[in-house]
Design brief:
Elements: H1 17-31, H2 36-47, E1 55-59, E2 66-70, H3 83-96, E3 102-108, H4 114-119, H5 121-141, E4 153-160, E5 166-175, E6 190-192
Pfam families: Y2_Tnp, Zn_Tnp_IS91
GO molecular function: DNA binding; transposase activity
GO biological process, one term: DNA transposition
Amino acid sequence: MNPINNYPQPANRQVEVADILRCHIGDYLKKYNMPPEHYRVVYDILNCRTAYLGGHVEMCDQCAAERILYNSCRNRHCPKCQTITKQRWLSARQAELLPVNYFHNVFTLPHELNPLILCNKPLMLGFLFQAASQTLLDFGKNPDNGLGGQLGIIAILHTWTQTLMDHFHLHCLVLRYCTLGIPCLKIHGTASPPS
């Protein structure tokens, strides 16, 4: 028996996030409160590709060997079933990158606003996107900064910490060059080449 699970596992099987959740989610819930949407994520990850979500049987046309395949949860946070989707998304974003350096800027809302954000997500997170993008665009347009051009920005919203606690922030990739081709000044972030 595998110490992480109640069921036997192949010897070469790697530990998955679902295994860790099965082992520790009870202790975690005794110590921390979890919002309803996090419960759904945990539920989906625990049941992804198990008999609980149903499945289907594949049969070989040649030898009639059968293989049971269980359905995935399709939750965007599930590491088991969203890997291909994530890789496609990353490839598409990398194809959009220009062959220049970028700055990484993070805009974070204070944790004291979490109750308000949780009750008004579209409005409050819309404000976050507006404030961050307008700040960066105004910085780029300001000729006093030696720029006077339009910055290119990609912003990605993150809503959790690694411990699944509410933490609303934007990661912004800011093109190091303005539309005028002038190298941008280093602002609060680190320049990093596209990978």
